[in-house]
């Protein structure tokens, strides 16, 4: 479909299709069709409400290029599986494509399975050139950060529940002695 078309991404993050000529072929970086597809039709864009139960958020950035990626997972507490995923990315086409791909890749996986995904898998699937590998690294870092956030919230919730149960017991025992 794009074989004779040069794809560049302008600052407003819109794909520009230009006829491919010998002079432009030597001076421009090409994006693989998979990157273009995820860029033009990103999957799972958005975010969950701030206090929604079972959500972990990963926010990562690459200082070298300014890309910022927010990836959120929603986990079923009973199964430990990721049931929904959202992302918002400010960055180049490869960063957006890496985010979009990651959201599709982790849906339905356990936290351990999702945490085992490496940037090399993303880069290979999207055919990212070496100069864009940092985008796949951001996606790997984002999912790991989201998993860590989810787990820390779950531990905090469990600790708060245990603590409140103890304090309720102590309050009741003052009014209703067991002897």
From TrEMBL:
Pfam families: NifU_N. InterPro entries: ISCU, NIF_FeS_clus_asmbl_NifU_N. One of its GO terms (biological process) is iron-sulfur cluster assembly. One of its GO terms (molecular function) is 2 iron, 2 sulfur cluster binding. Signal peptide: none annotated. Residues 31-155 form the NIF system FeS cluster assembly NifU N-terminal domain. The keyword Membrane does not apply. Scaffold protein for the de novo synthesis of iron-sulfur (Fe-S) clusters within mitochondria, which is required for maturation of both mitochondrial and cytoplasmic [2Fe-2S] and [4Fe-4S] proteins. Belongs to the NifU family. This is Iron-sulfur cluster assembly protein. It comes from Circinella minor. The lineage of its organism: Eukaryota, Fungi, Fungi incertae sedis, Mucoromycota, Mucoromycotina.
